Amino acid sequence: MNESPPGVGTVAEAFAAAVARYGSKDWLIVLPETAAALGIEPHSVSYQQAAEQITRLRDAYAAAGYAAGHRAGLLLSNRPEFYAHWFALNALGVSVVPINPDWRAAELEFLLEHSEICVVVTLDQRRGDLAAAARATGRTLALTGPEGEDIAAAAYPVPRALRAPDAASECALLYTSGTTGRPKGCVLSNEYFLRAGAWYAGIGGLCTVRPGAERMITPLPLTHMNAMACSTMCMLLTGGSLVLLDRFHPRSWWESVRASGATIMHYLGVMPAMLLAAPESATDRDHSLRFGFGAGVNPRHHAPFERRFGIPLIEAWAMTETGAGAVVIANREPRHVGTACFGAAEANVECRVVDEAGADVAPGDPGELLVRHAGERPRYGFFSEYLKDPEATAAAWAGGWFHTGDLVTRDPDGYFRFVDRKKNLIRRSGENISALEVESVLAQHPGVRAVAVTAVPDPLRGEEVLACVVPKAGRGDERLAQLLVSQCLERLAYFKAPGYVAFCSELPLTPTEKIQRGQLKTLGLTLLERGACLDLRCMKRRSAS
Predict the structure, then answer these.
(1) Phi-psi region for residue 66, left (φ > 0), alpha (ψ -120 to 50) or beta?
(2) Which residue among 158, 228, 406, 518 has the highest number of C-beta atoms inside a 10 angstrom radius?
(3) Strands of 459-520, DSSP E
């Protein structure tokens, strides 16, 4: 299965087809630990039971006037209701906007203005935050709970001509950090999601998916492409069961795997490191997992994990923007375990590795990865556009190739290895963080004359946020550093706040007073190695959602 299912144009239609084929099978499984974290009862939901809930919500939204052209926010974390609202809204042509539960005031205000959502499904404890963001932006926003109770009428008529939703229709708007200081909104079509599921279901090799037989466990957030497109759509199209976790719990991970009977796990690079840190046990291989699917495992941990737990970790490369239109995966031998290898491109994916001038580099030399789908539709399976940013969309596709911003090498046999990111991003535990976004919040503090944010290595989370601060008066102290971190925690998701703060007399600047990012990264590493940074990582704690 390499293309979207025949006769199916939307995610809602794909789920309806799955209900007809797999009606009594488990669709979602909520384990006791996750249920306790979400404040619900442990349970499973069959495809047929989910369909009944979806129909009820679809009718309620339709009666309230929601239709193609509207967008709806989903601030539900990894709750099972996320799917019911998504599929119900999709059936009406309404696009969904998953909202990171860690986002706070500044981020919510930006999202409301940029996405123009008119309704949000959320929990009682977040209604106040959303109402405050709506007041701050002057937007009218309806709020409803997970059960879809009392859905308010749409505040405005649909802004575009009504048409039946199809493969090209907008299905979701996912935000991903960029270099502009604000997240970019990736418009994703129904075709994007259907392609992702069909690709995963058909890649084979060590990732062979058995129809009607798999149980996939994932702690990854539904605000990310991996969980929303890859995990969800693969299980939906193959009649599998999704084991939803609220987040990754390293101490109880294997207990959850065993209790659920999971056969596939999804991971981020930080997970193998945490699981390897636990004492070895006679039960380490007492599970039903066949493979793990993910990215970013530390090369030092790759082989030791596979030896200890007895499952291959299949490294893949993709982005929110590329979807499964140009994914690369090491699902067949040789996988070159422990070398940051993510496989070789399939025949339907075209790749180039280029230098700063856009010229192809020699095999083995690092360069930026450019990709596109082979054939007459080079953007097949990719995002549709960056919302309200045609310039950024055009720049990303300059010369007919999607510019990934990732630096890689490709050996003579075609195998890719990840080197670094060209973009000005910090990647902490799988979350993309824009340095400029954090700087904009820190710069608002009256004690700051200048500030620049960079990434420093973290053995557990890959990278951590370091803020280099030039204080306005005298020398900075721990009290000021704590105030700066607290300000970020109030305005941004906890993971974006600085884990380290260093006070400097000046910052590396260009002649035009811009931050020299390369020198800043070197400075940050030097300050950390010299012990010249205040370690405030203990302040970074996930808030209750």
Answers:
(1) beta
(2) 228
(3) 462-471, 500-503
Please give the torsion angle defined by the CA atoms of residues 243, 123, 50 and 237, in that order, rounded to the nearest 10 degrees.
-50
Whether 469 and 502 have beta carbons less than 8 Å apart is answered as: yes
Within 10 A of 9 (CB to CB), how many other CB atoms are there? 18
Paired tokens of 412: 């003579």
Would the pTM of this model clear 0.85, i.e. be above it? yes
Question: Which pLDDT belongs to residue 298?
Answer: 86
Cα 535 from Cα 137, distance rounded (Å): 35
Do the domains at 11-408 and 426-539 have one common CATH topology? no
What DSSP state is assigned to residue 205?
Answer: G
The per-residue pLDDT for 162 is 66
Quickly tell me which residue has 């499984």 as its tokens.
Answer: 29
b/e code 122-145 from CB counts within 10 Å (16+ = b): bbeebeeebeebbeeeeeebbbbe
Those residues whose C-beta lies under 8 Å from the C-beta of residue 540, and which sit 6 or more positions away, are 485, 489, 494, 495, 497, 499
CA-based nearest residue to 518, from 454, 459, 463 = 454
Cα separation of 22 and 241, whole Å? 10
Q: What CATH number was assigned to the domain covering residues 426-539?
A: 3.30.300.30
- The answer to whether 350 touches 373, Cβ cutoff 8 Å, is yes
For 529, the enclosing helix (H) or strand (E) is helix 517-529
Q: Quick one: tokens of 19?
A: 């209900």
Helix (H) or strand (E) holding 189: strand 184-189
What are the residues whose beta carbons fall under 8 Å from the beta carbon of 127, sequence distance 6 or more?
143
Helix residue spans in 97-169 (DSSP H):
105-115, 124-137
pLDDT in tens, 410-441: 999 999 999 877 767 788 998 878 888 899 89
Measured in whole angstroms, the distance separating CA 166 from the mean position of its chain's CA atoms is: 25
Place of tokens 């009682």: 124
Q: Are 480 and 314 in contact (CB under 8 A)?
A: no
Mean pLDDT, the chain, whole residue set:
93
Residue 370 pairs with which residues in a beta bridge?
A: 352, 403
Q: Are 438 and 467 in contact (CB under 8 A)?
A: yes
Domain 11-408 has CATH 3.20.20.80: no
Question: For the chain, how many helices (H) and strands (E)?
Answer: 16, 26
Number of Cβ within 10 Å of residue 90's Cβ equals: 26
**Exposed/middle/buried for residue 369 (C-beta within 10 Å: 0-12, 13-18, 19+):** buried
Angle at 398 between CA 438 and CA 296, to 5 degrees: 50
Domain range list for the chain: 11-408, 426-539
**Residues, the chain, total?**
545
Residue 43 dihedral angles phi and psi, to the nearest 5°: -170, 170
The tokens describing 232, both together, are 């969800």
Q: Tell me: the pLDDT tens digits for 82-106?
A: 999 999 999 999 999 999 999 999 9
Instruction: Tell me the two tokens of residue 248.
Output: 């990754």
